[in-house]
């Protein structure tokens, strides 16, 4: 079963993503900021990390740069509704982002993209349906 870590400081957004991916059969953990996400990665071996860009403290690009160092095999997705992403992030942080998805997202498109990025990893209940 593929494991997804969702990082967003907006509780409603994090909850919506958690519901979406759990319904699709993924194991999901949620963190509400970058530091919490890094702590969770100590015990939760995420296959994919989805992070919001604009968060208090560490932004999503900075977080994904650190995720690359501690969990280099994890796919790293930056989720944002803002066009000015890279103006406030160093180029090394931008390079740590595997994929970018705009807010608002389409649930079906997001799930399909995640499945593609994970190479078909899914839960047994989803694959047998």
Automatic annotation (TrEMBL):
The modification 4-aspartylphosphate is found at residue 52. Keywords: Kinase, Phosphoprotein, Transferase. It comes from the Bacteria. Residues 3-118 form the Response regulatory domain. InterPro entries: Bact_response_regulator, CheY-like_superfamily, Sig_transdc_resp-reg_receiver. GO terms for molecular function: kinase activity. PROSITE patterns: RESPONSE_REGULATORY (PS50110). Gene3D superfamilies: 3.40.50.2300. SMART domains: REC. PANTHER family: STRESS RESPONSE REGULATOR PROTEIN 1, TWO-COMPONENT RESPONSE REGULATOR-RELATED. This is Histidine kinase HsfB.
């Amino acid at each position: 079963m593929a494991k997804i870590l969702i990082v967003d400081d907006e509780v409603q957004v994090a909850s919506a993503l958690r519901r979406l991916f759990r319904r699709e059969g993924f194991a999901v953990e949620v963190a509400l900021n970058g530091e919490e996400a890094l702590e969770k990665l100590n015990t939760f071996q995420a296959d994919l990390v989805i992070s919001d860009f604009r968060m208090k403290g560490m932004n999503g690009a900075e977080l994904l740069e650190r995720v690359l160092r501690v969990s280099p095999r994890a796919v790293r997705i930056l989720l944002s509704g803002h066009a000015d992403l890279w103006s406030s992030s160093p180029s090394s942080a931008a390079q740590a982002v595997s994929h970018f998805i705009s807010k608002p997202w389409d649930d079906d498109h997001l799930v399909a993209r995640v499945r593609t990025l994970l190479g078909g990893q899914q839960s047994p209940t989803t694959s047998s349906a």
